[in-house]
Amino acid sequence: MTEIKRMLQTKKDQSKEQFYPETHVEGVVGLTDFVSGQLPTGVVSINGKSGSVLLEAEDVYAARKNHNHDVATYTTAGFMSSFDKMKIDELISPEAGVVSVNGKTGIVDLFAADVEAAAMNHTHTEASTSESGFLSVEDKQKLDAVPIIVLETIKEVVE
């Protein structure tokens, strides 16, 4: 049977104090053999990675939480295939419906230019008193004529 003993050290005043030596697992004879198979050792590898592993969505064949899907059209697949988009649209709008759109027939994709509209990502120049921009010249002149009121702190009240 193994005898267990405390380790004590004598202090300057001759009192005894228990201490614990620092060691390594290899310093304890037979510990490796005893522990082997006794304790769960955790994951050795995951998806071919080992060590300190940080998984990304792609590592587990998943999509990132903040991802987007393109809108499906008759010519471009998006969240669904373009063929499925055509089938759904046929169910919603039967053949007796629209014959043409802006002079186009068949499968039609319309863009801003087809209906004389600006593209979604268009910009406006700033207006000046002599040239229209986001505002007309007249509106810019009215805006510039509005007096600027400056407030001045006369006294500050502190509670």
Shape designation: flat
Oligomer state equals: single chain
* C-alpha Rg (nearest Å): 39 Å
Largest sheet: 2 strands, antiparallel
Number of helices: 3
Gap between N and C termini, in Å? 78 Å
Number of strands: 2
**Structural class given helices, strands, pairing?**
mainly alpha
Mean pLDDT: 80
The poorly predicted ranges are none
Q: Give the % helix.
A: 10-25%
What portion of residues belong to β-strands? Answer: under 5%
Series of H and E elements: EEHHH
The main sheet orders its strands as 1-2
Features:
159 residues; two-stranded antiparallel ribbon; 16% helix
In short:
The protein is 16% helix and 4% strand. By secondary structure, the chain is mostly helical.
Could you explain how this protein is built, in words?
The protein is mostly helical and 159 residues long. Helix content is 16%, strand content 4%. The protein is built from 3 helices and 2 strands, in the order E-E-H-H-H. The protein has helices spanning 31-35, 82-92, 137-145; strands at 8-10, 16-18. It has a two-stranded antiparallel ribbon. A hairpin with a 5-residue loop joins strand 1 and strand 2 (16-18).
Helices and strands in order:
Blueprint (H helix, E strand, L loop, with lengths): L7 E3 L5 E3 L12 H5 L46 H11 L44 H9 L14
Antiparallel strand pairs: 1-2
